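Late entry, zinc ion complex.
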Amino acid sequence: MKVLGIETSCDDTAAAVVGAEGVLSDLVHGQLVHNAYGGVVPELAGRAHAEKVVVTVRAALEGAGIERPDAVAATAGPGLMGAVLVGLCHGKALAAAWDVPFIGVNHLEGHLLSPLLDAPAGAVVWPFLCLVVSGGHTSLYLATGLGEYEVLAQTIDDAAGEACDKVARMLGLGYPGGPAVDRRAAFGDPTAVALPRPRVKALGELKRRGQISTRRPLDMSFSGLKTAVRQHLLGPDPASVDDVCASFQEALVDVLVDRVTKAARKTGVTTVAIGGGVAANSRLRARLSALEPELRVFLPPKNRCTDNAAMIAHVGRLRLLAGQRDPLSISARAGWAPGAP
Ligand code: KG4
Ligand code: ZN
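Prediction complete; structure with ligand written out below:
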């Protein structure tokens, strides 16, 4: 079964075809229109998707050597609603015209299951832990089966990618900031600037004092880290851009790796995967790889970490093979947890 996937939840117009053989085509059209604004402008994102979605889908079908797929899957949320609706409605219209099944895919479920897409068959087995770290979300899930995901930890404020983007903006590194921080950090000293690592204990103490509301013992917080970087930059003797990037990145990665190891210990689950844009970060990938052989770590290729439609087609295909399909009346959903009905 060959499934066409469409992804338009943020600032990438993406289309892909996935079949039993794997990924047959995978196209991502990034939007440069946001660069001048230092962040994604939702209205402009929706318009740019409307311009590019038809040509991107056509190219994905051509790349896969097919005229029509056996089914269509499109991101139905969460994301920027005006952006999501463009791909969702285009996908539904194609499914209706071709008279093939349609699946509305949860974008986070796409990231969560993307490690299954490129790993050798049977290499990633349920249950596994998956750290989804993107521009809008930072969650650690326990995945026990298709559609069965328990949140073990979540950020209580900024997402990891959002923190990267904000720090990059403070340093004048442009948008998106994560790749720039990653590049500059390679030349810096991670011990140059002393930055906080909000620990489980510290968060527990703040919760007891009623200063924060966190629901899970392994929850994370990145807002204080970002503020500490700002205070350092406003101080009398700021470190070089490379050193600030390396120190910030090390603190961020320390917290993420700490939660992964604690969750593995707590659950006894030893297979770990990651997804989302920040999963492309070289330091995070190196630190997680170093957890082997105690843990089995699966890192999707970098192009499969950032937003793409192959992960959407993949989830659509798995759900179709499990006998599911969605009605064409399905609409976009903003606060949609992966696995929720
Ligand atoms: O998953 P994604 O492509 O889109 C969302 O669903 O949000 O993630 C985008 C985020 C941005 O915040 C971007 O700065 C960050 O991922 N990012 C990175 C890297 N590449 C992308 N952060 C750190 N290091 C990277 N190499
Ligand atoms: Zn994403």
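The radius of gyration is 20 Å. Will revisit in the morning.
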